[in-house]
Each structure stands twice: as C-alpha cells, then as structure tokens.
Amino acid sequence: MPPAEAVPMFSPELRRGLGRLLALVLLLTVGLVATPAEAATNLVRNPGLETLGPNGFPTCWERSGLGDHSYTFGLTADARSGRRAMRIAITELTSGDRKAMMAENAQCAPRVTVGNQYDLSVWYKSTTAANAITLFRHDTRDGWQYWLDSATLAATSTWQRKVVRTPPIPANTDQITWGVSLYSTGTLITDDYSMVDANAPMPTPSGCTDAAGCTRGKWQVMPYESTVRGIHAVMLHNGKVLLVAGSGNDPSAFEAGTFKTAVYDPATGAFTDVATPVDLFCAGHVQLRDGRVLVMGGNKDYPTADGTVGYKGLKDSYIFDPATNRYSRTNDMLAGHWYPSATMLGNGDILSLGGLGEDSTGTTTTDYFSSAQQRWLPMNEVKQTWAWWGLYPAMVLMQDGRLFYTGSHTFGVALPGSGASIYDVGKGTITDVPGLQRKDERDQSMSVLLPPAQAQRVLTVGGGNGDAGATAHRLTDVIDLKAASPRYVPGPPLPQGTLTGGVPQSGDQGKMYVSLVLLPDGTVFETGGALHNRADPVFEASIFDPQTNQFRQDMATDPVPRTYHSSAFLLPDGRVMAVGDNPGNGSFDNRISVYSPPYLFKGARPAIQTLARTNWAYGSTQRITVDSAVTRASLIRPAAVTHSSDPNQRFVELPMTVSGNTIDLNVTTNPNLAPPGWYMLFVHNANGVPSIAKWVKLG
Amino acid sequence: MSRWFRAVAGWVRASGRRGQLAVAAGLVLLVLVVGVVGVLVAGGGDSDILWGGGTSATPADEPAEESGGESEPGQRPDAPDPTGPVGAPPPYVQPFAQQPGAKPRGAGPSPTAGVEIAEGTDGCDHAYGDRDVCVPWKFPDGVTDRCGWLRERGFEPLKITGGRDRHGLDRNDDGTACGAGD
C-alpha cells in the first residue's frame, strides 16, 4: 500500500500568517514579561535571610548598632516566607539603636547608579513605632558613610510591607546598604527585603526656548520700589513678605520716631504699612511654630559722633501676626540685643545670643523664649555660659539639638578660639571646631545648612573684616557635622565677577555681605555682596551644588547692587527675591529684584494637585498627588533673613513612597532636623524643575 | 495518532478559510494562556519581583544569636517580646559629632559688665557726616587718595561732626572733609 500523500494541514498563506502571529506572541511575551522582570531585579543579596554563613548568620548581612542598651539579635522561625526572619529585641535602652544591615563589601552591598532612584521594600512586624529604614552609601572617595533615615515603620502585630524610594543616588556613590533600625525598647522582625531600580522617569523634554534663561536664569527689576527699607525680610506663610526697616539706618527717622514695616505681596506688588512700635532696625527675627514672627531687640540708639558710645540694643520683643498685620508686645528679654541671633530649637523654643546691649557693650546673656509659655524666661530658668558670641552669630541647629556656631557673623574683630564651635545648650558647654580658614575675616560672610538637612553639612562663604578694612576674600569652607570630630575643610573658591564699571575681579578678591538661598532643586543660589564693607558691589552669581561640591558659575547677576543691608530669599513660586542696598554714602536702594533660576526655563512645571493634610506630625506619612512624574520632595523653611544671616534656613528631604502620581511623603521623626512651623512643600522632576510650593505646618 | 491527525486535517481543510483562521487563533490563544500560566508558575513568589540576588535556602545549623548590653545571657528570641512606644514614633537622633578628646568649655564667671567694644566695630568712622554715613574706619590697603576714593563711591563733602579727623580728610581745616579745598 503506497504511503498516503502528505497533506498540509494549513494553506501556505495561513502557515505564513500563523508563523508571523507566533513570532508576535513571542515578542509580546518577551516584552511584557521579560523586560519588567529585568527592571524589577532584586538587588538585595540573600533577601529572605535564608542562606546562612559559617557563623550561622545570614550571608551578606551583618549586625550593626551603637549605644547603651540591652538587646538580643538573631534569627527567628516566625518568618513571612521561607524558614527564617531577622529578630531584634531591645529590652532596655538609654541610647542608640540596633539594626541588621546589608554587609558593606563589594560582593554584598547593592550596586547603584548615580542619579537613579531605588524602591526599597521590607516586610516587618514590630511592637514599637521606633523603627526607621536607615541608609548608608559608599562614597568612592570617602568610603562608607551614613546617608539618611528614609522612613519610619509603624507598630504592627501582622506582617506589613513598607516601601520607600531613595532620593537620587548622590555623585560618587557606587553602592548603598540599608536596614531597619530599632531605636527604642521593642521587638522588630524583618523579612523579604527587596531593592529595585525605580526606573527614574526620563527627563521631560527641556522645552527650553530661552537659551540664556536655561543656563543662567534671569533677573527682573520690579517697576516699583519698596515703600520701606527692606533691611529685614521674613517670608510669611500666607505668601507675603514682611519687610522691616525700623528707622532703616536713618538717624533722622530715628530722631523723629518714624519706624517702618510693610507687608509686601509679591503676587500683586502691593505694600501694606504696619504700625511699628519701636526701632526694630537691627533686631533679630524668626517664625514661631504657629507662623507668627518673633522679633527681638533692635536699635535703642545710634552711636555718638565722637565715638564715645556705640550702638545700643533694645531688650524689647514683639510678635508680628500675619493674620492681623500687627505687632504685639511680649515681655522683655533679659538684656538688650543689637544684632542678635535667633535660632529655633527642635521644641519650638527660641534662643537668642550676642549683639550689643543697652549700654552698647557686648551682650553675653543668653535669652530663651519658651514656646509653651509664650514668654522670655527669667534669668534663673536659663542656663548661661556668659560667652561672647559677637554680632549676628550664625547658630545652626544640629540634628541632636546642639547648636553649631558656623563662624559667620557681622562686624567685630575675632572671637577667641578656632572661630567655630558646637554649643550644647542643655549642658552649657562650648567645644571648638577646627578648620575654618581666616576665621578673623568672616565678618559679613554667610553660612547655610546644605540640602538636605539630613546630610548635616554646612557651607560658609566669603567674608572680610570691616574693622581692618580688609578686602573680602573668596574662601569657602564646608563641614560635615556627621563626623565624629567635625572640622571644616576648604571648599571651592567663590567664583569671581565684576566690579563697578565692569572691572573684573582678580587675585583672591571675593565678597562680603553675600547671600545664600536654598533652592527647591536642592542647590544653593549665591548672589550679591561687595568687595569692601559698604563699598564696591560685586556683580556675580553662582549656584552651589551640594552633590558635587562645586559652583556653577556665570549665573545672571542682579543689575541692582546688593551690598550692606541687602537680602535675598526664596519665594514660594521658586523664584528668588532680592532687596536692599545701603552703601557707605548713606543712600539706600529700594528697588526689588526677582531672579528666575534656570529651572524655570526648562519646560513644564510639575504641580502638587492635592494635599491630604496641611498639619503634619513628625514621623508621619503624608499623601499628595501630582500631575506628572517627580523625583524628589522637600520642605523648605521660609526665610527670616537679615545681614547675610538666616540660620534657620533649611531644606528637609521627604523620601517618597511612589504609586504612580500618588505619593506618600515620609516625614522625619526628628524635630531638630525640621523645627516646628510652616514650611514650603516642593516637588521637582528629573529635570530639576520644581513645583510651586504648598504650605504645610509641621509639628 | 496519524489517523486522528488526518481526520483533523481533513476537517480543517473542509472548514474553508474562515474556519482555518478560527483554528489558528484558537491555537495562538492556547499558547498565550499556557505561556502566561507557565511564567506565573515558574516565577513563583508572591509578587512580580524576580529575586535575582538571592540564593536558595539551604538547611543550616541553628543560627547564632547575639546579645549585648545588660541582657541576661542566653535570653532566647522566643522570650516575651519587649514593647516600646506604638503611637507617634520618638525622634531618631544619630550619635554624630561627639568630638572625642575635645575639651568643652563650661560657663564662665557671671560678668559684672558687658564686653567692651572698640570704636569702629561697624567698620565706620562716624566722626564724618551723619551717622548713617560710613567713612571706613580703615581704608582698604593701597588707597592713597582717600577723598578720591570716597568721591568715586558717591560721598558728598562731609561735615566733621565728631571733633576729630583721623584720616586727614580736612586739609584746609574748614570743618568739612573732602570739601572743595581738600
């Protein structure tokens, strides 16, 4: 029997079509399954803690922790998956924490790409809310170092998952490790860690239509002038700006008892006069936790011409209320303060130091305003050091509640010691910090806590010495307050600009009375200043990038000279406003300039569409929605600036938990990182283009 | 088998072009379903994450446990769980900048007076002009023509109000610094 003739099952056309269809299916399978799997590769080694090393501890993990406490640390069979989970129990605690960390070595620590973001995930159970996801980063130059605590884990008796996205990986970082820190008594069990590349959204097209704006930013001088001399500027949480002049360095106004304050509305250009009770010229000021402004000290009298008596400081204090545009008097301080510092502590209290007293001598009295009691405390309730801090000493609150005196101040000759120090308010002790260059030429320098506040780094820029007639220098110094023994190290030299007539700066010429403004993209705008005390404006502006520790030079310069009695500060719309200039001939420039940084010329701005709450608690998670992808969120404390001094200025990182355009913001537990009060909430996209701020009240 | 195949092939041929397309689509759907189920089964786990970095669990000895501080030796993980604050988390503060070896200064003696401040602390010699005017207490290095330096910076002739002329700006001694005859 001949074999049956082979009969094709499908026609040739159908076979070809079927083949194409199968190829398509294969491609779709690769596209839909394989690619996401690749993007979601877990970078954590031994994520389920199932593989043990010779010491019986999970491979690629290590025990970590510091401090004075009693604890047990090991594995438990109470696992979410597999056979093992990590269990840490602290039975008594005086200080410190305990945590399991990914091992800090080349094989185990997840490798990362600079600029990328990673979603960290961990399953956990805990009998306490005192758990934090702690990150370390490996700096290719400086080795392993603490990065930040990115999220808090609430207490739970059932397995819960916490996911948080890292900020963009900083420059010079090739690996990170992380774990969950237990920092109170309690029991923490963790399992099934993961870390996946979040596939940071591609930068949106720049949309740059203005080449100069994109690279240098642009200034606009308002077509009107301030109605008062803007010597003191405070950003209010209603979006308006408090401009305080007092007598405005005008002795005739002082003699006439003409003291001025105005509230300026940047949206409308309107000024509202505010009745000013005393000469608040040269006062100190800071926003209280409720958004009112505490003003302390001021000018009791100008110096005599024969030089026998100098400026005298008031001990009066007032609170300005943005809701009523009125000052109300508080009790007096213990001593007069002309040029005092004003720093908010983590509990909302205010510390004021330095300046000149009622008899024009230097004030060594520490004044302390109690937020709870709404009054300056009497002498027997304030721990005194009787130290002389100079005038407008820049006191930056550290993450543990101590104060860092940056060495930046206004006027005066050198203070003893190294020029910078850490002041423990509770203990009443002061410890010098070394490294500040030319410590005796930091008159009218400026310091700022670099973004983010969690990094605990301070930048001090420029300065001179008015007493000695010194020419301002271009030195900068950076200090990392995370170090065991912090010390300033030299930063990059301040870029040089031009003097009057377009003469370029030369040699080591720099600036005094310089302004530093934190921007919502995590950089620092540097602008204004002069070569000498009240003389020789320098036209130069730059942007300092804390990630690279470099200045981006040649930003557009304010066409208005901004020397003595000038200030610059951030507006909620992401622009920078500059006011004031009071050169030695006694004139005053009342023009207002507004700078639009390059990020405002780089395409559409992301928008915060909804904000679940405006009253935020420490350690909470706050939900927002945005209209487009963003890479970072932050809280920026509104300015309260004068004389190149705004020690409360800070940018607080808000690590994000991202689900599409819904974002949960993880708020720090530590009020010392973000003292209570109103903040500007910003987000920005991968191009660094920020949103307009929403106002939130923390604490 | 071959008989079953021939029967199906014959049925497909008889079905016409529309029927053949339907059969082909059914086969593709079957491949898709089998493929997806296969991926899900083979992928295992509880999520869409592939554990690229992990290794399989292997039996091991009872893991070592570490204890520290003042805890009782031998305390087991299955002891009653200690608890902590469960509401708002307490502040998490890092032990930075403890400055080991550095010697802090304590409070000084209570002063009987404030610190004496030398004249010119604001960098100005207020003996010239009104007190909002700031003739430098010390001119910058290299300035030889002081009145010229002041004029270039917008200073008008200044009355000497403080009864002295430290900088010698009133050469003709008419009571006005940097005036017409100076």
Question: Summary?
Answer:
The complex is a heterodimer of chains A (699) and B (182). Chain A is mainly β.
Describe, in plain words, how this protein is organized in 3D:
The complex is a heterodimer of chains A (about 700) and B (about 180). Chain A is built from three helices and 52 strands. Chain A is about 5% helix and about 35% strand. In chain A, a hairpin with a 4-residue loop joins strand 24 (about 365-370) and strand 25. Among the domains of chain A are: about 60-195, Jelly Rolls (Sandwich); about 230-395, Kelch-type beta propeller (Neuraminidase, 6 Propeller); about 610-699, Sandwich (Immunoglobulin-like), CATH 2.60.40.10. Residues about 1-10 and about 25-40 of chain A have low confidence and may be disordered. Chain B is mainly alpha-helical and about 180 residues long. Among the domains of chain B are: about 1-40; about 120-180, no CATH class. Chain B is about 25% helix and about 5% strand. Chain B has three helices and five strands, in the order H-H-E-E-E-H-E-E. In chain B, the strands form two sheets. In chain B, strands 2-3 form a two-stranded antiparallel sheet. The radius of gyration of chain B is 47 Å and the shape is rod-shaped. The interface between A and B is large, with 154 and 115 residues. Strand 2 of chain A pairs antiparallel with strand 1 of chain B.
Largest sheet of chain B: 2 strands, antiparallel
Q: Walk across the major sheet of chain A and give the strand order.
A: 1-4-9-6-7
The quaternary state of the protein chains shown equals heterodimer
Low-pLDDT residue intervals, each spanning 5 or more residues of chain A: 1-9, 23-38
Computed structural class of chain A:
mainly beta
Task: Provide the residue-averaged pLDDT of chain B.
Answer: 74
- On the 0 to 100 scale, the average pLDDT of chain A is 94
Q: Label the structural class of chain B.
A: mainly alpha
Would you state the CATH class of one domain in chain A? Mainly Beta
Protein chains sharing the most extensive interface: A-B, 154 and 115 residues
If helices are DSSP runs of H or I spanning 4 or more residues, what is the number of helices of chain A?
A: 3
Shape of chain B: rod-shaped
Strand order of the largest sheet of chain B: 2-3
Name the overall outline of chain A. Answer: globular
Strands of chain A, total number: 52
Query: What is the number of strand segments of chain B?
Result: 5
Keywords (chain B): Membrane, Transmembrane, Transmembrane helix
Protein name (chain B): Excalibur calcium-binding domain-containing protein
